[in-house]
User: Which sequence fits this backbone?
């Protein structure tokens, strides 16, 4: 157990992957795609559920509501954005930052230097975000499941 904790702490302090994790090519593609989808999607959805988990089970997946949240946030409808998905505004800010820095090479270098100089902070934020995002998704699914089960 001690070895696992020691390894985790060492990885949090390691600067090798910090910039790639937050601003790498996959993140840049995800940011531009997310912003494009947010721009073309109506803020309150199209009325068609595209989530196969929701269609099959009736229970929201971890990311259900995220596109609508991004769409509302992009249009300044912050309360609605938060109600669709509480992580939408954070992800929108991250996507906008990533998209803007992808267009400015000098800013990318400064951001890379800053992130790699503070690996514990950025790796910790990454782990914290993933744990909170997945935790929220599981908690929401459990509440919906219990609500559906109680209705039977």
Assistant:
């Amino acid at each position: 157990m001690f070895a696992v904790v020691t390894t985790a702490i060492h990885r949090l302090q390691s600067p090798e992957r910090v910039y790639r994790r937050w601003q790498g090519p996959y993140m840049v593609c995800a940011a531009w795609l997310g912003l494009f989808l947010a721009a073309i999607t109506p803020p309150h959805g199209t009325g068609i559920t595209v989530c196969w988990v929701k269609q099959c089970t009736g229970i929201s997946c971890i990311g259900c509501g995220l596109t609508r949240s991004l769409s509302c946030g992009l249009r300044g409808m912050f309360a609605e954005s938060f109600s669709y998905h509480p992580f939408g505004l954070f992800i929108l800010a991250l996507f906008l930052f990533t998209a803007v820095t992808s267009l400015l090479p000098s800013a990318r270098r400064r951001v890379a230097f800053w992130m790699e100089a503070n690996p514990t902070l950025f790796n910790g934020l990454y782990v914290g975000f993933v744990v909170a995002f997945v935790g929220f998704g599981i908690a929401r699914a459990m509440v919906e499941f219990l609500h559906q089960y109680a209705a039977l």
About this structure: The chain has one domain: 2-151. Residues 2-151 form one domain. The longest helix spans residues 119-151. The CA atoms of residues 62 and 135 lie 9 Å apart.
